[in-house]
Amino acid sequence: MAADISSSAPRTSPYTGEWEYDVFLCFRGDDTRDGFTSHLLSALSDKKIRAFIDEKLEKTESIDELISILQRCPLSVVVFSERFADSIWCLEEVVTIAERMEKVGHRVLPVFYKVDPSDVKDKSHRTGPKRWMDALKAVAKCAGHTSQAIKIESELIKAVVETVQKQLIDMSPSINRNNLVAMGSRIFEVERLLAMDKLDDTCIIGLWGMGGVGKTTLAEACYDRVTSSNKGIKHLFIRNVNEMCEKHHGVDKIVHKLYSKLLDENNIDREDLNIAYRRERLSRLRVFVVLDNVETLEQLEKLALGYVFNLSKVFAAGSRIIITTRNKKVLQNAMAKIYNVECLNDEESIRLFSLHAFKQDRPQDNWMGKSCLATSYCKGNPLALKILGGALFDEDVHYWKSLLTGLRQSGNLGMETILRRSYDKLGKEEKKIFMDVACLLYGMSRSRLIDYMATMYSSSYVKVKDLIDKSLLTCVPSENGEMIEVHDLLKEMAWNIVKEEPKLGKRSRLVDPDDVHKLLSTSEVKNWSTSIVNLFKGIVMVIPKRKKRKVTDMHQKGDDPLEEHRTTEGIRLDLSKTKEMYLKANAFEGMNSLTFLKFESPEIKYPRYRLKNVKTKIHLPYDGLNSLPEGLRWLQWDGYPSKSLPAKFYPQHLVHLIIRDSPIQRCWEGYDQPQLVNLIVLDLCYCANLIAIPDISSSLNIEELLLFGCKSLVEVPFHVQYLTKLVTLDISYCENLKPLPPKLDSKLLKHVRMKYLEITLCPEIDSRELEEFDLSGTSLGELPSAIYNVKQNGVLYLHGKNITKFPPITTTLKRFTLNGTSIREIDHLADYHQQHQNLWLTDNRQLEVLPNSIWNMVSGRLIIGLSPLIESLPEISEPMNTLTSLRVCCCRSLTSIPTSISNLRSLGSLCLSKTGIKSLPSSIQELRQLHMIELRYCESLESIPNSIHKLSKLVTFSMSGCEIIISLPELPPNLKELDVSGCKSLQALPSNTCKLLYLNTIHFEGCPQLDQAIPAEFVANFLVHASLSPSYERQVRCSGSELPEWFSYRSMEDEDCSTVKVELPLANDSPDHPTIKGIAFGCVYFSDPYYPWTRMGWRCEVGNTTVASWLSNEKGVLTGREKKSSEKVWLVFKKNLSSTGSMGSEEDEAWYVKYGGFAVSFNFYFLDNDDEIMKKVKIKRCGVSLMY
């Protein structure tokens, strides 16, 4: 067995497969060459471990060659023998080994062969150069093996080989990275900066460098190593933040979704979750997060959840964050340790190029000159090296000469020139596939992309794989399988290739909104004013009056406008980025080559989307379009503004038909329906007027049928039964849908959603692949047998008053919801051994008793709601470490909580809102992990136990609407949010409120006795003293009609009450001149008492330019239950302020410094739950004060 000679282990040196040898054997030849060392070498060779031994080197040669080889090995085995220290060569080797241990984390395994470890350490004190002695001592201290502990030589060799294997495995990234070059030292440097062994702080590392230099690859390698060796840490890799922000038009939704994953929130689609509450939970979580491709300061601030770029405050001590970016300013604002990811040197470039051009580490001698010339054009950029190498693979010398001559003569040896050469080498179909993906289809799943391509190109699987192998496409893992992405540089190249095509109508693919507008929109200015209004039986008919068509420049030149349409193959348009478009009836005529048309609204996020009646930006003539190109394979038109598709549109090749949130009634009118034999996806979600879907009798390849929210649909064709390739069926919220097919034959069904259907019988489902089965809001006569087919960790939602017994589900589910049933009691749970991650029992109004065993049935969250007959919760007989969240709401008969709740040792969240409890048990102090208590509208609540102050991790305490409670005990020391709004009898805040260093939010609006008891000085001190608090901002919300007197700038009574004009002070570098430490601002407003949510924000403007902005992170709850509107005051102090839209340039400075001496305007506003301006909130007055 191994003898742990020292507790001091060397740093990890990453093993990436790029090393010439795996192991360097350091030994005294006269002592062990022909015995132990030769046997060890043989054993290593048997395990395919490449070990270097100096048998081929003559002792007369310089030791430099030996040292050079040692530097090309990640691990050394040092065999200490009796006369080891007598050899100068051995000591020089040990010196190099010790230096590499310190500098690059070289691994060392000492083996003490017939010598005591202490003897070796003692020899380190003998006479000789100090560097020898220090190195000998350093290596001898490492953990290793001794012949004293393992006396049988064969067993000792076996132990050494096993340890070497473990070391090499430990150094290897968990994913296959055979073609990584020069990554070992880079990984080591990043890991040295990460310092994973230090748990007393949060560390942010920035990987900065040009595009294609390998920042993401380096981050992936570090992520794999850290997560594989730190199993207890929560981890998350967020790919391409910048692209996701562009796709989702901001980072808010990304922040919500991704941090929800870190917190294991299953209802991640809820955006009304309390941000402060989530932020506090994150602050107790040790994580390892990679934020890939963060390009702007705005993205960084949002990802930091409002901590003004300071991600270190988001997570618990010991957390590590890696940010990759081309923008150094992002990292400087994040206070990150910056690692400059440099380009490869000449030797590294040759190696990477050779791996792709020759599929070996090094070119043959006769190709070395040409390889050096090729790599010189790439300037050490890994992406360019891989792509150029791939383009030259398996080509003859003449092709090499031609391509390299072309590079030299191009006069532009930039990155795009290199990438373009690789593209030029592709075959005709490969070029088309690459351009389709780079311009139109990036972000699709690999399988779906291949299926789609197969309808146009032969051998699509092989061609996509070849493009991946040539590094032109990238395959990345995701929750839904492998996704196909394209590097930003390659996208830019593809777009530039398109722009080289001379005429707009001749361009093969269009993605720029201006280009699409120029091509499709009519030049005539429409005036859709009403000229005739005919009233007939309550129907208003609007007939548009058109202005006379203007003569365009194109017509003046005599060009045929349709001639320019004929070669466009694909159009992709983000509707949120385009201006109003008025299409001609013949807008698409002549576009015979068009196969891809995608008008996408990013606001529609299936399956979580509330219809907002978003105004369409694309307008059609009164009679609609004449036709659409019949060659279309992909047609997506969100908000399609017509009742049907053109009658002359008869697509034979359609693969994807997606029309969402449209007034369409039928896709095609009449009985002559097209045969959609190639259709794979039919998505008509949110088409509320749809009365019939297309004829799918011949569409046997359909995999997705999505009809969510088609409220006018009355039937689903019986042909659905025979769709044997169907994977996803969603007919949720089709309120008028009655008859369903008796059976679904597909054995591939994974997702079946039938929410809120007026049906009594569910189709028979025989699929064993079922992962999601949602019957929420239905009233089935009996439960379908398919509920027992849901796979392990699947999701099951059941609903219906006809359910009278708890279903005996024996599979462990990720979420099991039982809603609106007639169950009176839950029994026989003792027979079940599964633990669902989340159990939701809601609106079971006849449920009276919960069994004791229910606590053993849940491993995460237990939610019980709207069960008015439940009077008590069962006792918890023994300590448990599984349940993390308990939520019991709207159970008015529940009057007490068992004292044994203290046995829920891992409980972090406790919600008892709208129950009849009178107090909490004092044993609650034992819940050491509790960070949130919510007791909203507990009308019988009389007291809170004094022991609550012992909950050191409690950060959120909300008891709004508890009308009879008079006083509160001392609060926990780390509390950050206190909400007592609507506590009408509360006479005072706890005595230690002002002493709570971390408290940043107090809500006490609707507390008449508090309004009288709390002096204005308390509010002022709480806000102003925020500069001494760790919190980046503080907020107070209370009743009132006036702002504090110390507000310097106020809105004018006779002008716009929502605007405050401020004169910013001139910048002054004098040390005696006070600096702005923050800003206080506030608003007096009143609102509709029945509207539940509101957010306050402001924009600071100079003229028409917005230079700064603020928006409250959380959606505050109005006090509710008010019978009339009342005035309220919302006050905020914010320490740090950032500018709006900053791109993070080196010259960027604080906006209030940059605009010093200017008159600026602060414009206040309120947003509703949909982030729309709230018209029912009226601002009475507002104010701003600069704090010094």
Automatic annotation (TrEMBL):
GO BP term, pick one: defense response
SUPFAM superfamilies xrefs: P-loop containing nucleoside triphosphate hydrolases, RNI-like, Toll/Interleukin receptor TIR domain, Winged helix' DNA-binding domain
Gene Ontology molecular function: ADP binding
Record-annotated TIR domain positions: 19-168
UniProt KW Repeat keyword: yes
Keywords assigned by UniProt, alphabetized: Leucine-rich repeat, Plant defense, Repeat
PANTHER family from the UniProt entry: ADP-RIBOSYL CYCLASE_CYCLIC ADP-RIBOSE HYDROLASE, LEUCINE-RICH REPEAT-CONTAINING PROTEIN
Annotated protein name in UniProt: Resistance-like protein P3-B
The species this protein was found in: Linum usitatissimum (Flax)
Gene assigned in the entry: p3-B
